[in-house]
Request: fold
Amino acid sequence: MISPLEEFEIHSYGSPLFTIAGHPVSFTNSALYMLLAIMGSSLFMVASMRRQALVPGRWQMMGETVYNMVANMVAGAAGEKAKPYFPFIFTIFIFILFCNLLGMLPYTLEVTSHILINFAIAILLFTVILLTGFIRHGWHFFSLFVPHGAPKFMLLFLVPIEILSFAIRPFSLSIRLFANMMAGHILLGVFAGMTAMLVTAGWLSAIGILPLLLNIAITGFEFFVAFLQAYIYAILASVYLRDAIEMH
Amino acid sequence: MEGMGLKLLGAGIAMIGTLGAGLGLGMIFSAWISAIARNPAVEGKFRQIGYIGFAATELVLLLGFVVSCLLIFVAK
Reply:
């Protein structure tokens, strides 16, 4: 019986390339699928906008729809002043989207189901947010943690809570994406295992069609979740960026 | 393996938090749907707020799920 967690294992191809502080660094299947996602997304955007026709064809329509959706989202959630940050948010969105969708193919690794990848993206995002805040507002940026109009003695409790809720954001961003992706894939694996067990169970084998049908429905739902989680990651990134740009 | 039963019991208890998250998600979507039903013109404006509320509520569910997974697969 194969464990449903087996698909998340990371293998390295070949021997380690070099070592950093005693840790061997090698080309893994995670790196391979990230490269594939980058190549796929670049190919999609470049190929869809290759012929910039006035009346768009099918591929150009898809490219423009994705671009417009993210542009509207950034303008709505991060404000008009966040326009210079649009390429950054768009890159995060399309990278996560392609990683999620690539993981839906059979026998592939879901890159975003490892918390480390999501946390690395979140750390990059928060470096940008903190730099933006300090460059735009200087030391005044710390007033983000002081709520307006609160009584003086309540600040003693409110400021630590505000700081904690800011510091926990990269963790909540990465946990949300990784747990969604992992839960969906474990669910698919569990129902597939159930089908295999029922089919080989003798007189019960006809019931094995039920988890299979359910699995087909869940696969469709997982495609929706893959898109939705990339969208939520990007929209929360824009909301957090707005705090640093406009304060409150 | 000693304490395996307690680990599994703890994993089950950790998933009780799903109850609250499920109730919260139901409340968010019911409020969202009735808001759009009363005034269909706000649908585009409410989409972002709805998804942000959905994401914030869902995190509670996922934290319980992660604790449960850690108990089953990682804890020794």
Remarks:
- The mean pLDDT of chain B is 88.
